[in-house]
Amino acid sequence: MLFSELKCKEVINLRDCRRLGHVVDFEFDECTGCIRRLTVPGGSRLRNLLRSDAGCEICYSDIKQIGPDIILVDVR
Description:
The protein has helices at 3-6, 45-50, and strands spanning 10-13, 19-22, 25-28, 35-40, 56-59, 63-66, 70-73. It is mainly beta. 11% of the residues are buried.
């Protein structure tokens, strides 16, 4: 899967069915090439525009399913 495909998917939290946003970045392990975590914006859109570091990091182990349109995660 390409990053351009991944960033188009909306991230939904299974615990409270809340929309977390779309993937804006990810971190991967340089040795294995595996994804470690995804970053989605946190808070309101205005807050995200004002703060470049605003975001929520989701560990790869918290990802439950990646579908054609959404990514389901289980985070607190």
